[in-house]
Amino acid sequence: MAQYKLCISDPKTGRTKQLEVKDNDAKQFAGMKLNQQLKGEACGLPGYEFLITGGSDKAGFPMRSGIMGKRKVILAYGGTGIRTKEFGIKQRKTVCGSTINADIVQINLKILKEGTQKLFEDKKEEVKAEGAAAPAKAA
Question: In 96-123, which positions are buried (b, 16+ CB within 10 angstroms) versus exposed (e)?
Answer without folding.
Answer: bbbbbeeebebbbbbbeeeeeeeeeeee
